[in-house]
What we know:
By secondary structure, the chain is mainly alpha-helical. It contains 9 helices and 2 strands. The chain has helices at residues 6-37, 44-69, 75-83, 92-114, 117-120, 135-158, 167-186, 192-204, 216-236, and strands at residues 238-243, 246-251. The chain is globular.
Amino acid sequence: MESPVLFKRCVAEGIGTALLVLIGAGTAAFNGVITASNNATTTLADIGVISVAFSIVIMAMIFTIGRISGCHINPAVTIGLAITGHFAWKEVPAYLIAQSVGGIIGAMAIIAVLGMDGLHLGGLGATSLGSSTSYVQGMFVEALATFVLMFVIMGIAVDPNAPGNWAGLVIGLTVGGLIMLTAGATGASLNPARTFGPYVINSLAGGNISWAQFPVYVIGPILGAIGGAVAYKGLTTKKKQVVGSDTHSVKV
Length: 252
C-alpha cells in the first residue's frame, strides 16, 4: 500500500498538531482561567487533568492519522526519526512547517473556544519556566522528558518487532506521566510546535510572553529526541561478526 502523498501527510500533521494544542494547551488555558477567577493556585489535581487531556488527544491522533503521516505532530520527533534513518531528510522541512502552522491554528482555536479570557487569564496554555527553574535546568528537563518520550516511540511504534496496536495508548500515557513530572519545572512542552503556536498568538494578540525562554523549548526537546532515538537504535542495532570467511548478523 502506497503512503499518501507528502501534501496530504503534511495536512494530517497540521491538523494533528492543531488539535494537540487546542485540547492539551487549551485545557491548561482553561485551568488558568478558573484559577484566576477563583483566586486559587494550581494544584496537582489540575496538572493531572491537563496531563489526561494531552494523553487523550495524543492517543486519538495516533489512532486517527498515524496511518497517514506517522503522527509525529512534534518537530523534535520528526528530527529524531530522520537522524536515525526512519524518516527522509528531504521531507523534514515540510513536516516542520506543517506542525508549526498547526500549532498556531490550534492556539487561535483556543481563543475561539475560551474567548479572550483564554489569552489574558489562561495565556493560551503557553509554557514557561517555573519560578525556581534556571534556564539550563529547564533545557535539561525538556531534553530528559523528550528523551524518554522518543525512546518509548522508537520501541512501541518504530521497531518492527513492537507489539501491534499499542502505540496510541502507550505513547499517550507516557506523555501524561511526563507532564505530571515536569509541568512545575517547565510547563512540560516536549514539543517545539506546542510551545510555538501559543507564543505566536500571545504576541500577536497582546498577551504576556517571554520569547527569551523559547530556545529552551526548541533545543531541549530536539536534543532529547535525538538522544532517545539514537540510544534505542544503539540498543537494537544488529552487529556483524566475522567467523572465518562467514559473516553472521547477531542482535545485541
